[in-house]
Description:
By secondary structure, this protein is mostly beta strands. It is about 5% helix and about 60% strand. The longest helix has 16 residues, at about 1-15. The chain is globular. The termini are far apart.
Amino acid sequence: MKKLFLIGLLAFPLLISAQTRYKLSGKITELKTKEKVELAAVQLRELNLWTTSDGNGDFSFINIPAGTYTLEASCLGFEKYEKAIVINQNLSGYKLEMTGLTLGLEEVVITAKENTSLSSSSKIESIALQHIQPNSLADVMQLVPGQITLNPDLSRTNQITIRDINTSTNPDANSAMGTAVIVDGTPVNNSANMQTLNTAGGGTSQAYSTAGQGVDLRQISTDNIESVEVIRGIPSVQYGDLTTGAVLVKTKAGKTKLEAKVKADPNIKQTAVSKGFLLPGNNLGAANVDIDYTHAFDDIRVPTRSYRRVTGQLGYSNTFFRKSNPLSMNFKALYYSTFDNNKTDPDMLRTEIFKSKEQSTGFKLYGNWSVKKPWLTTLEYNFSGNHDRQDFYEYKITSGSTTPMPTAKVSGESTGTILPSSYYSELTIDGRPYNYFGMLKANITGRYGKIDNHLFAGAEWRTSGNNGNGKIYDVTRPPSGASSTRPRAFKDVPASNELSLYMEDKVTIPLGGTRLIAQAGFRYNNLLPEGIFSTKGYMSVEPRINVSYEIFKNRKSFNLSDLSLRFGYGKTSKTPGMIYLYPDKSYEDEMSFNYYPDLVVITTRVIDDTSNPDLKPTTNTKFETGMDFSLFGIKVMLTAFREEITDGFSWNANYFVMDYRKWDVLQGAGKKPVFADGNITYTEGGLTKTLGYTAEKKFQSYNTPVNNYEIRKKGIEYVIDFGKIHALKSELIVDGAYYHVARIDDVIPFSENINLAYLGKRFPYLPVYAGNKGTIKQRLNSNVKINTHIPALKLITSVTGMIIWFEKTNYYWMDEDGNHLAYSLGANNERHYGQFSGVEKIYIDPVGFYDLNHEYHPWQDSYSSSAPYFFMVKDEKYNYFDAETLPFVWQINLKLTKEIGNKAKFSFFANNVFNYRPLYRYKKSDSYGRRNQSAYFGAEIKFTL
């Protein structure tokens, strides 16, 4: 029986290939002008068969099994063609007519297209992108359900988070880092960014770039983008190294007219030029050139916060062997640079200098080979790389306060120097990150009876490193914040490598009048691999599944014309960047003797390895379910989700007990102390004497990367499309979301040093506080969109009422069972946990403490009122745990796009048109603030030649 099964399994592809096959050929022309359309991509979707039109607009397919398929055609500058076609005989001379994209079309989509087949995602096409006039990818997010419109700001780094409550310029670092930005199949990698001063003393809080965070979206020009897809739900396994979601960007390739754009708003000025042209000759392909220049500033009074950049892209695309086994090839060379980097400010001293420069060059080579074998339909490939230059230079006056400055680079006692009360410090941080990416994916697609199946398997390799000289400064004149660190070369840090393997199957099964679509797969990741299944880092497996059941489609039942259900589950993970894998050494220094200005002796303890061997990737476990239906012609899409992001990256103080000698205070001048052979000698009364000392201990710490951060999200997203009101040539769409986001800043217990004296000495204990401490944010918002399209005028207007029904924030500190760890004191000093009404202070006890012998002692309630223990009890204001609920607020946003003939297009936008900014009193801080962003407007004009 097993032999028969094996023979049948091996013979199955041969049986499939033995079916009657047919041919399809035709010509692609422009609908009105009848001109041929070259390099249009043509596809039979269900079979994953594809080709491109040649110089005469001709295309052809061979070996097509009988059936009904979806014929698709797409080309830059044209509306996507999609039509069902029946193949039961050879078809030749098929006329495929495409329509050029223009606002004169009867149907124009300026909103995000929601994916209702499997995982939740939003796709924004080129006309919608032009209408919203984005300055960066962060502006594109305003079309995604649950997001709010923010004024553009390129003077600060721009990052994306998905299903979160924050802003693009102040995002949650883990959420931004876990959002994958993938351009033309190549992930934009920030792993090798190490532009920080002192991880041992401040983690990534002293970063001079987006080190340890997400990608700075200002590096990506939006003028050469053809489409953007934002995946919010469970992504396909082909997308990895992410947690919160993915943003897929497709740039332009193919023939386009010369386009020149000028854009201006109060804080941003931009010009861009692009052109796509067919190379002369027969089927030699197309070349694309895009150049963009942008100047942005936050406040004209603060020149140091300005930003200037230029981006450029040169592309080539072609398809070879069109009539047999088409092979597409796309090559793109990329350039990005900031300039005018010497920044001055009238408030700075004339001698102070501040420079910052980023530059990147890269390449991409990607495409698809149509093999057309029963065992291999297509083969996709992608090879890319980039080398960046990150320069930071600062020359400024620094306060030294006549404090001693250690310079030792090894543990032990050494002499130091005394800093002057003020001095000029010079700091250079030289980064040279590089990234390489390779991908190969095999697809097997076919129709077996009435079942469509798409199976693929792939492999990826990622390499990240940094060849920079790193942190450079004079240790005797250190920059501010350089305590506990020393100069370091980034090129001494090992490169980071990652191998990934994945496989996924998608099947579409008709069940009577219904249809079931299921997609399931897994992804295997190996960080720092020594072999495929051995590693110096870690290995992980990510299962993912999405299921959709179309109960009925395009037929009415109880006034329902469509009804489908969706479910998804999956795991995704984000690898730690190099700044987390290879943090700085720690130099902990303690003053042992100070006889100013003659002699300073400092004890140094060097921690050569501050890395965490147990550091794991951040992992997100996602669940989502959805329902899509049409009721009385109103389309409704509902998605409920739950996400648990665990093992997020953060920095914790790692405490130890430092032993050192404290020499006696040497009184009087002229003692001429000398430090030699571990002793301090001095001259007094013509005699040489040895100075006494005492053995001391103190708690000292350094930062180490840990998985001590969690985010728990849940919510509901909705889109309600009321359809078109033909008499008004308008459509009404309402979208929005309810988000509940809980952040646990400290999952595990943590320590905090008590910086006070007790009985004339340092405080002798180190408290340990319980974890599970964080914040909860909630928001319910709606966007009411009225889009009006008048084809005769080639005009589109959009009026959006952005409503935040409520926004709520509160802090919590509880045990794992949800019980409050904070308490108030009653009249007789009795404790009331979780009862904070009518009190002035609330308190949190440690769970234990360490003494100077590093012995741990569990906490006892009696310690809270006993010296010296009560110094370790935290206290907060009475309203620390009170929820801050912000009331209803609204604003009106306007967008307009008008084509002027065939040569120009004008666009305008205005945010918060009525400048409605109600004053609100924040209860917790007892301060006032404006709820809305200020009114903001801008315009652009694009010429097409």
